[in-house]
Amino acid sequence: MKKILVKASKTYPVLIDTNLLGNCGNFIKEAVSPLPAKVALFCDDKVEPLYADTVENSLKASGFETYRFIFKNGEEQKHIGTITQMIEFLAQNDFTRKDLAVALGGGVTGDMTGFSAAIFKRGIRFVQIPTTLLAMVDSSVGGKTGCNLSVGKNLAGAFYQPELVLCDISCLETLDDKNFSCGIAEAIKTAVIQDAELFDLFKKKVTSKDTETLKEIIGRCVEIKAGVVAQDEKESGLRQILNFGHTIGHAIEKLSSYKTAHGEAVAIGMAVITKAFTKLGKVNSALYGDLISVLETNSLPVKHNYTKQELFSAALSDKKRSADSITVVYSPELGKAELLPLKLNEFESLIASSF
Length: 355
Ligand code: GLY
Known about the structure:
Number of domains: 2
Strand order of the largest sheet: 1-2-9-6-5-3-4
Bound molecules: glycine
Low-confidence stretches: none
Structural class: alpha/beta
CATH superfamily of the largest domain: Dehydroquinate synthase-like - alpha domain
Radius of gyration: 20 Å
CATH architecture of the largest domain: Up-down Bundle
CATH topology of the largest domain: Dehydroquinate synthase-like, alpha domain
């Protein structure tokens, strides 16, 4: 088993291996101190039939009193109404600050459970059990929690770290191809900005059956993210590099009414921004071609059908925008990332140069 410590405002372990779910109660007992009495399991209706019983049985066998809250699957559910239901559920079942919430699922579940844990009674502890590759390589680690508002993605939220992250690679066996590729997109993002060797692993299509490769990919992505979060937990500088491809990606998600999944949108976002900076002569000549090739090899989209104006307007709701500027992330060469604050008119021209 791989064990990586995230040293943020709280230090916590990320455990990566196969067949962890059936023993999650014991892992929680080891990591969460003092022990909670009650545990609320949050998951969506797609994950519940697959894994909720296994997790709940393990929690019960470890002596916890368990409660289960299920919501509908999908990014459209990631709104404040669902958060209200989640915290009402905790209140109605008399949860106290000593108790625990568990997020079992993908990024939507992890972000919303973490946000509910952050605000319920000003903070109860929570554990992340990601079941998608995207959540394992990115969203379950580092304490970003929240939900979408009508104006844009993740506009409400809190930095709030979990007690433990359990990445059970066996869960990836039931992941559909689209969701698997979405996780690969975030892993490719991490490789482009920090790790040229990791990038090489994606030159051949990675599949959900490549258990050892996946263990290596998830481990490396978590190590890199832990290193970045340890230096800049609240994203005042360095952590913004993890948003490579995300400003345009979030705009595409919003323009598609969330029909384009997050990972697919990030793949397109990375392609758009790298093309634009290549045209400006700021990117190593091989990178754009290598990036497109690796994304396509892994069944990810690299193009969109929106206009310059649509993309620009939608990108303006990005959290990284201030009144008159926006910070853009690009990679000048494999394994490196730069942050560039741009005036909004410069950002508009940048988008135009990607067409
Ligand atoms: N997903 C980027 C971050 O956690 O900072």
